[in-house]
Design goal:
Length: about 475
């Protein structure tokens, strides 16, 4: 992509999903790229290995190439100069040699500046939405550029440098870096904007509803006044946000809004009719679980059909062939009769959506949730009340010990407090502190007629790999 002002970049914290996708996007744009991290987990470890990106472990000042003219530093509690020598070296070079330091959001803003940015923003559903839109446009023979903050199964990669005019971006409201409190998406300048459902999240950063919605209002102000703005209505804050904005908006939802999903028939492959202002547009079939995924498809359909980018038939075909995203209700094994799915459990609403999807699609089977309170939101005392109904509908909840990273930066609750709160809500909860303990607990409790939902945004102590292995051995297909 022409116009990018740097030729050699080094990414500190490259194993983050957004960082890795941006690094590879930049590499494929013609920039020489290297990276470093302290540890790398699947699926990103597999992606970086397959792409043969120069990635160095652990952090060390010597990792930074002498001639790097750009250093990109991730948003991580360990990536501060006071405790990280490689980050300290980056700031030393910035002060002494003028080496540029940017966040990955700033990099994406530069890369997309000469294209037509389409930004997906919201509390949940944005990753799936940008993946669906990318897949749909590729199926139509168009060639957009895109960056997805996850490891998608469709399209096959989380990044792509296309020849088309559109640049599809997942817009995250979280701060850009440890030195830049601006929401990541404020570095983008959307020509068009798709707002997925809004609900209060990241309470450690946005303690009030007003503070949470403020950057979304700023994003609306940044958007091209002549562009299309689509907004879901289902989030608990969605209607309030729309009432506060004066911008013309096209609405969508499962059963509300100008664009809807009618005649929904759920199953292993679900079906619905995409409608516009009550009129049927096209029949859609999908293998994705949950009403929230149908809502994402409605939003994507509203965008591509309103803009005239694809035909209704091509849109429907793309929704039917969409394979999903790793960690977004993807099935972990087909070699066991026990269905095991992994949901991205980074927030209350995402967890509730995943649980609701499992109950809808497997109504007659006991539901076992294996949960890790990995994000600050799940570990913060201010949101301990989430556990009062977060696991409603689950027959068993295994609670892995909370992540310790950044525990001193907020009022962190303990594993015992979390387990006690879940139990007080009437759910059966069991604490586990190791992979072996978790496997043993499941082995002792399960009969083979259950479905298993893995919920975390972290590694879950190795249980993501160990539980399918257990079920394949005990209850093979």
């Amino acid at each position: 992509m022409s116009g990018f002002p740097y030729r050699k970049a080094h990414f500190i914290g490259v194993a983050g999903v957004g960082m890795s996708a941006t690094a590879l996007l930049l590499r494929d744009s013609g920039v020489i790229v290297s990276g470093s991290d302290e540890a790398i987990y699947p699926p990103i470890s597999e992606v970086l290995a397959a792409e043969r990106l120069d990635c160095r472990i652990p952090y060390d000042p010597a990792n930074i190439p002498a001639d790097a003219d750009l250093i990109v530093i991730g948003k991580n509690a360990r990536l501060v100069p006071q405790t990280n020598a490689e980050v300290a070296e980056a700031f030393r070079r910035a002060a002494g040699q003028g080496t540029a330091i940017l966040s990955f959001a700033e990099v994406l803003g530069l890369l997309s500046a000469n294209r037509t940015p389409v930004v997906m923003a919201g509390s949940f559903g944005k990753t799936t939405s940008v993946s669906l839109l990318s897949h749909c446009l590729l199926e139509a023979g168009l060639d957009p550029s895109y960056m997805i903050g996850a490891a998608p199964l469709s399209p096959p990669k989380a990044w792509h440098v296309g020849q088309g005019e559109l640049f599809l971006l997942e817009g995250d409201e979280y701060p850009s870096s440890n030195t830049d409190d601006r929401s990541k998406f404020l570095h983008y300048h959307p020509a068009h904007l798709i707002l997925t459902p809004l609900a209060h999240d990241h309470v450690n950063v946005f303690p009030t509803v007003e503070s949470y919605l403020a950057p979304f209002h700023q994003l609306m102000d940044l958007s091209d006044p002549d562009g299309l703005v689509l907004a879901a209505l289902s989030g608990e804050l969605s209607r309030r946000f729309l009432e506060e904005t004066k911008r013309p908006v096209t609405t969508f939802g499962v059963d509300q809004g100008e664009w809807q999903a009618g005649n929904i028939r759920l199953g292993e492959r679900s079906r619905f009719t995409l409608t516009h202002k009550g009129a049927p547009v096209v029949e859609v079939e999908t293998g994705q679980l949950g009403l929230h995924n149908i809502e994402n498809m409605v939003g994507v359909g509203a965008f591509v059909l309103t803009r005239g980018l694809v035909s209704a038939a091509v849109y429907a075909r793309a929704m039917g062939s969409f394979l999903g995203i790793t960690r977004r209700l993807d099935r972990k094994s087909w070699r066991t009769s026990v269905p095991i799915y992994e949901g991205f459990g980074s927030s209350y609403d995402k967890a509730r959506s995943a649980i609701a999807a499992m109950k809808l699609h497997f109504p007659g089977r006991p539901l076992v949730a294996v949960f890790e309170p990995h994000t600050f939101s799940w570990r913060n005392r201010a949101t301990l009340h989430w556990y009062d109904d977060a696991f409603e509908g689950c027959d068993e909840v295994l609670v892995y010990e909370p992540a310790s990273q950044g525990a001193g930066t907020h009022d962190q609750v303990t594993q015992d407090e979390i387990v006690a709160r879940i139990r007080s809500a009437g759910q059966h909860a069991t604490p586990v502190t190791s992979c072996a303990e978790g496997v043993a607990a499941l082995d002792a409790r399960m009969k083979g007629d259950e479905v298993v939902l893995l919920l975390s945004s972290g590694p879950l102590g190795g249980l993501i790999e160990a539980i399918p292995a257990l079920c394949e051995q005990r209850w093979p297909t």
